[in-house]
Specification:
mainly alpha, 9 helices
Length: 254
């Protein structure tokens, strides 16, 4: 086959896959009746509350390391006083949403893909259809909405913890006054900085949940198929978060 035909076939396959994922996402978001509150509450706990420790620790060490790096680099230009402002802006705009999203992707996308993939392999999804229960409404919709609602909250908590991590290093190791550090951190933050990070968190949560549900529902038979679906979900979620972050950053701060 000639290269043009191969390129066209790959392009068509990519377009079909993107369209299928978009339709899958729309069905998962808007098929709300009947709504299953118990399943939704369970996913709020699994995706939101149980992800808080890993997101908090990641943000704490990231904020501390960022303060050290900015102080070291700023000292070369006699600009070390900007540490509080840059730590706050960097955490709220970029590092908080991205690292929080990646940590949630590592924990949640793999869990969702493995759980739904196992149900697919053991024919539990077929049993749901037999019982006249829509698998999308029962399995996908609660996970998508739980991720969209809880990841921005995780990002907000992670931003606060990251700024506190920078504050701990700044006041204990870099010689900053505690009151002045906190005042400078908040003085240079704007409302749109915080809001843009929360919007990113909602988008990243949707990407994570869609990746886990999509690959879980398409899992092939056997343990190998479940493992492949889990790996693909994590990789797709991570790449999707980084790509979406680039697009949203260009849109918000052009």
């Amino acid at each position: 086959m000639n290269p043009v035909r191969l390129t066209g076939r790959a392009a068509l396959r990519t377009v079909r896959a993107c369209g299928a994922v978009m339709l899958f996402t729309a069905r998962g978001l808007f098929r709300l009746r009947p709504f299953y509150p118990r399943a939704f509450a369970t996913q709020l706990l699994q995706i939101g509350w149980l992800s808080l420790p890993v997101v908090g620790l990641t943000a704490l060490f990231t904020g501390a390391a960022l303060a050290l790096q900015i102080h070291s680099g700023g000292a070369r230009f006699q600009a070390s006083d900007v540490v509080p402002a840059i730590v706050a802006i960097g955490m709220v705009r970029e590092l908080g949403p991205v690292l929080g999203g990646l940590m949630v992707a590592a924990r949640v996308a793999s869990s969702i893909a493995a759980e739904i993939g196992t149900m697919k392999v053991t024919e539990q999804i077929d049993a749901l259809v037999t019982l006249s229960t829509d698998p999308i409404r029962w399995l996908v919709t609660p996970r998508l909405w739980a991720a969209v609602l809880t990841v921005p909250l995780l990002v907000a908590v992670g931003d606060s913890i990251g700024i506190m991590g920078g504050w701990l290093i700044g006041t204990n190791s870099l010689g900053f006054n505690s009151t002045a550090y906190l005042a400078n951190s908040w003085a240079y933050l704007e409302r749109w900085d915080v809001l843009s990070g929360l919007i990113k968190g909602a988008a990243f949560g949707l990407i994570v949940a869609v990746a886990g549900c999509w690959f879980g529902m398409r899992s092939s038979r056997g343990a190998e198929g479940v493992g492949r679906a889990t790996k693909s979900a994590v990789v797709a979620a991570a790449v999707g978060i980084l790509a979406a972050n680039f697009l949203l950053t260009g849109l918000f701060f052009r």
